[in-house]
Amino acid sequence: MNTFIDMILTRHSVREFTGEIIQKEDLETIVKAGMSAPSAVNIQPWAFIIITEKKILNSLCQNLPYAKMLDKAGAAIIVCGIPEKDDQIAQKFWVMDCSAATENILLAAHSLSYGAVWTAVYPDEDRIKTVREECNIPNNIIPLNVIPIGIPVNRNAQPIDKYKSENIHWNKW
Ligand SMILES: Cc1cc2nc3c(=O)[nH]c(=O)nc-3n(C[C@H](O)[C@H](O)[C@H](O)COP(=O)(O)O)c2cc1C
Question: Is 119 near ligand 1, meaning CB less than 6 Å away?
């Protein structure tokens, strides 16, 4: 099979990491993949915070209820939206744009043999506040998610097969 399609079909959320660190160059490559995503009118209403400091990973782990895997992650990437990047378009489309960037990040991490998982921040106000405070994010920037990345404990985990023919409609519903 085409290796890129294979990457898409085998990507899955990884929530158990060995605790090993991740090379800076790999993190840069992964974020570069995020920035290659499509965005409405190519506004790119995003910014990426790469977290490598254990202290910050642990603090986020303590304060984010659904991101407990952060304590063993080698790093994390916070995908942030910038709704005011232009007059109109970014306000409307930043969530979709940043979601496209997130999927690219998840795929890039997987292709480099790391595990990763999207953990939700936006639209939960408490989580947005927690992440803003921990990472000095200004009020006009919105953290969409925190993506812990690490070496998977289980390298043989199989993805869920989500293919459902009933979800496909040819030509009309
Ligand atoms: C918008 C969104 C929010 C998510 N939030 C969390 C989360 O807070 N914590 C978590 O462990 N997984 C989270 N996930 C991951 C999903 O649980 C996961 O993608 C889903 O169960 C399908 O599994 P897969 O990624 O292995 O295909 C989130 C995924 C999305 C798209």
Answer: yes
